[in-house]
Amino acid sequence: MKIAPKKNIFPTLADIKHPLKASAPPLKPNQQNFQSNFFFENTIGKKCRKISVRRPNRISFPKIILTGLGIVILVSTLAGSLIFLKFGNPKTLILAKAGLIADNFQQALTALNNLEPQKAIIFFEKNNSELTAIQNNFQRFHLTKIINWGGFFGRTLILNQSALAVSRNLETLQTNGLNLFLNGGGQKLTEIIKNLQKEIGKIGQAANSIRNQIASMSDKMAFLKVNFFNLNQINRDLTNGYLDYNAKFYQLEDGLAGLLDILQSKNDIHWLVFFQNPAEIRPAGGFLGSYADLTISSGKLANMDVRDIYDPDGQLEKKVVPPLPLQVITTGWGARDANWFFDFPLSAKKVTEFLEASKIYQEKNIRFSGVVALNIKVLESVLGLSGPIKLSDYQFEINQNNFLKEIQKEVEAGADKTRGEPKRVLKVLTPVLLEKINNFNEGQKKELTEKLKFHLSQKDVMFFAKEPRLQNFFSQNGFDGGVYKLPDNFWGSYLAVVNANIAGGKSDFFVNQEINLDINLDDNGKASNQLKIKRTHSGSAEKDYWWRAANQNFLKIFTSPESRLVNLSGNSQKTVKPPVDYQKNNYQEDPDLLAIEKEQQFSEDFNIWAGKESGKTVWATWFNLPAGKTKTLEAKYETPATAYRLLKTGQIYQFVFDKQSGVDGKLKVAIEAPSGYKWQESQSYIYEYQNDNPPARLIINLALLKI
């Protein structure tokens, strides 16, 4: 089998793996090029040049006169410049410089893709030098008199200078933004963001001006019936980079406007931080045992209140029917269990609703503007940079390697639990950790940025905002942990495997998961799928009971909308009965949960719930695992093509995988082309992908090739 090239895998992905070859190690954080940033493109490959065939024009006397006159004027005007410029002709100069400038710009955008504005600055500065030199030469030798080329490059220079200013402001935010926010620098932080807005506005103005001038120059060239400078190529080289990314700059500008509304609010803004523990996994991440209420005033952090999630739930008078699987452990639904939806924006919204309904916040009329969710891995990374932290109130030292175990032990069996404050240790630790971050040197700040970029790419950090423009920015750039929305007329396969630990202790810390999917396409584009989910619980030798508890797992498989289950085996039998008569006891039904549960139907043949959620077909079942055991769930299902397809060379098949926040594990996918075809990417009828720790979202595009 030939090695499949990487060109049709999104930049966030690792290399393709092949049978009988050793797996490559996971990508390092600074190798990740993820979709979590505002310059990420959702397409694969370079843009193709359009080719057109034109009939030769008839030669007429007036055309000969006009063409000759145009050439004479151009040559006479340019003659004196050729010695200075040391090029064979002006066309060579323009084409060479245009290609160089375009290449610099593309490399700058790549750097911004990687959240490396300092590298982008280098390439934008190179362009400044090139564009300034070109503009000066055009003015010196009066080349602007014919078609105003100097004006064209001058406007491109203005656009480049604004892009350079944007990069410098982004570098300042990256380096000092958190410090400004934590240390009363709200005014300075707001000024930086305003400057960003201003320069992005200049980019838009310059881009529109360049478009208009290109049209004007094209008209003049068409009138003279010459293309002395190969305008089409220059247009393509210079504008494809700048102008094609213009929409991304507008998107950033809109998101910044939403952020400024928060930072400049005359009233205090409250923002939530979810501390999610993946040792007890839930659909939107780990169990939400603790959270922080950040008070933002005049663009800076004014207060941080770290709380146990049971504090507000204990003062919640609202009675809501919980999801059926959760009725095993609770009679009523509350904030602690509300990150129940795989779609993080919906989970964040639901947790926020419960918190705002609690007396703690309802009586003060506190409303939360947004959420950032952090998995334990983020805090471990910070500890890796800060070094160990010794807590004077406790008889232990916290470091990167023992963080979860020591904190969990203190929460489950420490002295604070007997006093009714099991999460007090987090209240003590959080301000100390923030102080450590505040004192990071430049090297530590850069390393923290790299680690945060990696955690964004792995869905360890997710954002939600009630402000529509800011939320749209999060969503468009993959920061919000939302479920992928399939395009119209989608031909491909979607997969997400979503776990929920319900009364299984903290056993997920010792559970390893492997997903193996084989897809076989027939002559009509229909897919026959065989999915295997293997889970191993290695916590049987642990001393503490919460690690060695049986993993009680409610599993959901998200697939393409029209998928039909053929067979399922390996799942567990478990019957859940409502603990109370909810209607008789005046419990409310949540409309978002009700909309999902109304779509569900129980299949006794397979012992599953089948329904729809987030625009996908979902099969839900129990998949429990005792400590020290390995079990495999197998599902066979079919996915019809969305419409009748006449298969042909070049047709694209797309595979999409959405990862669950907080769950790592191997993913193996094999996709077999229809009979008579192979995949262009692998030059084989089978395309294989393997990654020991796939990114938050994996998208693979494959092109058919007739054999």
TrEMBL record:
The chain crosses the membrane at residues 64-85. Keywords: Membrane, Transmembrane, Transmembrane helix. This is DUF4012 domain-containing protein. It comes from Candidatus Jorgensenbacteria bacterium RIFCSPLOWO2_12_FULL_42_11. The lineage of its organism: Bacteria, Candidatus Joergenseniibacteriota.
